[in-house]
Design goal:
The protein has about 80 residues and is mainly beta. The chain has 2 helices and 6 strands, in the order H-E-E-E-H-E-E-E. A hairpin with a 3-residue loop joins strand 5 and strand 6. The N and C termini lie far apart (about 25 Å).
């Protein structure tokens, strides 16, 4: 998978199918080159109120498709 083509710019949804933001960057393990975290840039009005970026561990990702769906409490 090409990280830039597959992940950057994808919308991220929480378990309640609410838009969290879009992937703006990834954090990779320097030894294995595996993605360890996604950097999510908040979109819309909410980014003006709170910190505009969140780092989400890849373990909290449920599905990567057209959009990225995060795990809910029932999935953890």
């Amino acid at each position: 998978m090409k990280v830039k083509d597959e992940l950057f710019g994808k919308e991220v949804l929480d378990a309640d199918i609410q838009i969290v933001g879009k992937v703006s960057d990834v954090v990779m393990d320097k030894d294995t080159f595996e993605v360890t975290d996604l950097v999510i840039k908040k979109t819309g009005f909410s980014h003006q109120i709170k910190d505009s970026e969140n780092i989400v561990p890849i373990e909290l990702v449920k599905v990567i498709g057209d959009k990225i769906l995060l795990k809910g409490e029932d999935d953890i």
